[in-house]
Amino acid sequence: MDPSSTYALVIGINEYQCPDYPVLNAAVNDADAVDGYLKTTLNIPEENIISIRNTQASRQGILDGFQELENVATNGKQPCIIIFYAGHGARTERPLQWQDWAPESEFVEMLCPFDIGTERKDGEGVIEGIPDRTVCYLLNRLSIKRGNNITLILDCCSSAGLNRGSGQETARTILNPPPLSGKADLHVAIPEELTKQDESTSTRGIRPSPGFGGKFQDSHVLLAACGREQLAYEKDGRGMFTTALLSTLEGVKLQTTTYASLMDRLRMPAKQTPHCEGSYMDRPLFDRGEMRSDPSFISGKRFKKDGKGELVVSIDAGIAQGITLGELFSIHEDNLFETASRPNESIGILRAVTVDSFNTSLGHPPGYRKAKIPRNFYARRIDWRNDPPKVYCEDRTWLESVFPQNSTQQIDIVGNPADAALRLVRDGNQVHFHRGDPSLNQYIPERFSHSFECITTADIQRIIRAWQHFNYHLNRRGKNEFAQVRMELHYLELIDLEDSESSYEPENYRPKGENLLAKEPSEVRVPEADVEKPIGVTLYNDSDIPIYPYLFYFDPNNLTITPWFTAPHGAGLGDVDAPLPPHSKLPVGYANGATYPWQFSFEDDRDKDIGFFKLFLSASPANFSCIAQTESPFKEISTRGEDIPKDTMQAAQVEQLDKLDKDSWGVKAATIIQLRE
């Protein structure tokens, strides 16, 4: 991070002009502390920091602050931008005109400026709060003009209606904010560039479609003090979240600590759970460089059980993530991708000694030296025990040399090519990989489109390990059926704003036509490359319990597993918000679903292809990010997915949701056949 090209907007509000709203004691102190961290620790020049407090932080003052930030952040091609807000937050009913923005919720969240609730000078009602939608538009515009290395930090309540704290703790919430008129965004200019395609985010066989629908998570990373049903507390003259955040930031290396790993290190009480959201949670802090975290690393902690006594070393993955008893893990201090210039060296080897649904306890295996394990660490699987793949090569001796008997990575070498799931063909100095799945080969070539000359043993092992990871997670079943959760896939249509009363609203999408997942397999018509035909998913929870969904796209052409939607990343002892509350729906790729609409595409002259959506579900927060395989083992970008067994379970065997507990998890899958239109 270059301090000279880092800019900040720091807002702190203790005082509120309207006498109906309580004053705070610590918001300004928090803003001052953040100012100090930016200047002293990050060495950001004072002229790069816009600081507004109390009366300066009126509604117009905050909006002007965003505009000033946009104007000053011009030094460098990719400036780093940090926005901090401490003050009251509130939740209010969604205006009727915003139906297409938040179709699944009756409420929107908002920041509370100094003058909220006071009379407007023009006599047209009272001054409103700044809703999440307005903040989203402002950040979209900022990211278009100055890049998406933006961090938004909010130390305020995300919801109202609960108690306001007791004793020495004060909650940062306004319980009765003025209602939104629906015209809160009228003054926010959305540039034409917002509707243009961002090619840098294209992902293999499915790519983002243009428009507002999913820009939210791509424009910035959000660090929020608490969930929507919690309060953000201040105590002893400081906000609890800001205090914990700055303390943790002072103790980590920014170059090797990602936003997600920062949250793993935060210490917070169960009553207040900080949330982290955004497409770039896997970036190092305040950095837009090429370095990203490797999803194969699983976060872990060393702690004393019940705060005392027995020392426990545990990772955030278990049966639901495919961990089995006795597996070996390589332990590392960070979770960034390894490069030639920056190796991510192992500090020791541990073994799985107990495996629960979402957690695994590790211990020192015999034959390996004991290593000192840090409080926070990352574990990578090094001996996959699930279903060794059946591999054939005509040159069996050569294949046995690649996978010797003492190797931690085992395969089942077969003598008949018809029995093999994967065939390796040596052609002079080249090695080709062939899949042995007829259900796939009718849609995509049997041979992977990648071949290698002078390929190393490590490369072959890496490719087969990735192939095994891909197929295992694609084909496995869940513990529970989650019969009252369903998934629909629709083409999306652009909302015609000219025919809408809310014509000031930027572009958005809504579903149209029939559910494309009504039959298995499903068919999607793929237009020519220059024609847009976006798709979106809607998840429905018809049960009485909250559900945590994690949606992935499996592409068998390059063995990638790409996350489309995942639950927020939480910190501390409490649970993050469930994206699917009881009797609710969640848009993915449209409305305020916080992800892009996506579109299938052909990258060659083929007329058909195949891919898979797989939805992992849990009844409590879980870490399914380790399932992702965002980099192809072939180190190239190609296109699309693989086949899933048909569900033959009879209705009488389906487990009812009222039997689910916190350890329940399950999967739902959809095969997508893509045909050229």
Automatic annotation (TrEMBL):
**Residues in Peptidase C14 caspase domain copies:** 7-268
List membrane-spanning regions: none
Recorded GO molecular functions are: cysteine-type endopeptidase activity
Biological process, per Gene Ontology: proteolysis
Q: GO cellular component terms?
A: cytoplasm
Q: Check the record and name the Pfam families matching this protein.
A: Peptidase_C14
Q: Gene3D superfamilies in the record, alphabetically?
A: 3.40.50.1460
Taxonomically, which superkingdom?
A: Eukaryota
Query: What is stated as this protein's family in its record?
Result: Belongs to the peptidase C14B family.
Protein name, UniProt field: Peptidase C14 caspase domain-containing protein
